[in-house]
Amino acid sequence: MPKVKYILLDCDNTLVLSERLAFEACADLTNEILEKKGLSDRYTVDSLLEDFVGQNFRGMLVGLQKKHNFQLSPEELEDYVAQELGRVTQKLSEKAVPCPGVPEVLKNLKEQGYPMSVVSTSAKPRVVASLIKADIHGYFPDEHVYSAATSLNPPSSKPDPKIYLYACEQLGVKPSEAVTVEDSKSGATAAMRAKIPFIGYVGVYGIEEGKEKMEQMAKVLREQCNADEIMYDWKEFPELLKKIEARN
Question: Which BP terms in the Gene Ontology apply to this protein (predicted)?
Fold first, then answer.
């Protein structure tokens, strides 16, 4: 039975419970921007998550300008991206924790000899801060942490598959020889477009938003993004990996 050559993993709300923490910092800055532009709209953490989950702040700013009909100069955009990165990295370095079951699974995968890499939309300093605080940084050599926001020039954001294709190229594997785990529609779409077999992790929605949202996301990832498998708990990962390996 052929073994998967590389396990690629999303970070935010897949390895680390970081999305809500990041969006807390993000919502404050987003509302400051809207206020400066003379707009009355305001975001809560939940409404921001609803509109922009899975995107990095650069991607969010593009969406915000379209949605609320205002413009940022390139200089303003870069300044806000830098501000957001500082605020979020600080918060994650203080409060990030791993998703339930992740440390045990990573330990097991390392013992079995699977090489692992992180492929995230988020800026690399933020990803590394999350991994360090969650105490799982040791499983991912620094050069194997890839970020659509900072590893690519020009920067990108999932659902664009560029960061996955870049990571595979750097690691010397074909997309079909890897497996990834994604929790959001944008991340799952990037994996699908890159033609990487992927497992849709929905357990995080059960933790943060309840069973109904969890099942809703399972349906989205399965039907709209063609997830190879759906994972409700990280304990299921070894079995799901075997299933994918058996098909290849």
Answer: DNA repair
